[in-house]
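Why does this matter for the project? Reviewers at the last site visit asked to see concrete outputs rather than summary tables. In response, this paragraph embeds two records directly. Each consists of the residue sequence and, immediately after it, the corresponding structure tokens. Nothing has been edited or filtered.
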Amino acid sequence: MAGCVATPIPDSSQTARQYIGLDEYQDRSELRDLTGVDPVRTEWCAAFVNAILELDGIPGSASVSDHPLMARSFLDWGVAIERENVKRGDVIVFPRGNRGWQGHVGFYVGESPKGNWIILGGNQDNEVSYGIFNPNKALGIRRYPINTTSPTRTLWGFNPVDLERQGENKWEDH
């Protein structure tokens, strides 16, 4: 496709880094302004991920879920990525608690020397921090679809040639 320019997807883990160390008690007001929720009264890991994605101009889980404050809402967001293809900035969902709806979500940063995943997220020990997680417990690895077209037209995870062959119109203008 002549004249098409791929717009790079921001590494949201880089955006999130500027908030490392913000504590839900000491920095309650700043976190509330960022996430839109009271971090002392609300489990805020999903709100943090959504806020960082918004700063990067990426739609968050509210674009696919009626419950964007639930970590597991990200299981329907973006495109699924296989474990061996995980990369920095991917959104990772883990289980938490004893109820099937509970979870934790953050950004993949890298791998520890022991093979665990380093996740940057909110509400990790009541603050924005790095945490170590077992990759075998990940419920899902998600990535924002790559923009394969011009900066003003986004194709959400579909190959334009395949769509033309199928006669489908999956384009969304911004």
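We now turn to the second protein, recorded in exactly the same manner.
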Amino acid sequence: MAAKRKSTGRSRKESPDANELLTLELQEIHSAESQLSRVLPRLTRSIESEQLGKMLDERLTQGARLIEEIEAVFEEMEESPGRKKNVAAEGLINDAREHVQEIEAGAALDAVLIGAMQKTEHYCIAAWGTARALAQAVGQKSAVRAMDRALKEGGTFDDRLTKLAEKEVTPALLAMADEEEASEESARSGKISGSQNRASA
């Protein structure tokens, strides 16, 4: 008599179709943008670079528009954004939050936050590209247009962050390090001079 197979207690894996995968991707993007919209104002208040602040404000506006567009697509598809949190985006955003808590405001924090924003934007660009491909495959034109715009704006935003780091933030960070080194050297020279004066007295 054949032995009965033991039940593993695992549910059967699902095999979603392209429309369902598109819905899942859009839900992930909606969650990521919603989380980002809540943290960007706090990051903006913590930075020193005026230009970086303006860029984060622009990204906040772009994200709000993308959320609206995705919600319009959900209506067309008769779907909802859902409540599941995008944990990948959450990790990237929490990383930026921790930097604000641990690093004093100034060129160093600005440099680190540019890096954190670029990591987050690269993740978003990958997600937008995936959603765009799925939307094209199923003929969801509204989603294709929204993702096309997001990809264009995201690429521009990433490039501008790189240029800002190269032209303003990193030079300011290096200048700050040079000033600290010069100050330490001056303090050391003062101590040596004081010792020599005492020795010759």
